[in-house]
Amino acid sequence: MPSAVVSSQGAFSALRFGRFAVMGLVAVLILIAGVWASWGSAQHVILTKGRESGTVKVTRCGADACSGPYAPISAGSRPRGSVVIEKNAAVREGQTYTVVVKPGSDDVVRSGPAGVLYAWVPLGGALLLASVVVAGGLRRTRAAWVMAGSGIALLTAAFVTI
């Protein structure tokens, strides 16, 4: 009979380790997806050395994008008759925004504190989602609270600056 108890405890330990490994992997994948989604815009806003920067006055907005003339600020940047900026809650027709031009295109992303924080919004959402996985699947409530607090702080800061 003692051998049955030992094997039962071994199976329980293996299941616990399996749950820990799978939930850890899910949390890491969620965070990687958040960074990946954010990096598409964030790289242009954060790594500005050698990139064209200027202002755009939004004159037209469609369903997905807005456009307007681009006036350069940085040396080596050339004026453009029309550039395209993603339409979101932070872009309004008639307003002027500081932007960075994506290399090899006429697409621009907002720069400055508002642009940096807005670029990292997907990571803020991923932090909130991963905190639920960490709390429920890994039973690490302190780490989950830190992750959730970081996500809420990032989303709130982005909302306030925009």
UniProtKB/TrEMBL annotation:
Organism: Streptomyces viridochromogenes
Regions that span the bilayer: 20-39, 117-136, 143-161
Protein name: Membrane protein
UniProt entry tagged with the keyword Transmembrane: yes
Swiss-Prot/TrEMBL keywords: Membrane, Transmembrane, Transmembrane helix
Membrane is among the record's keywords: yes
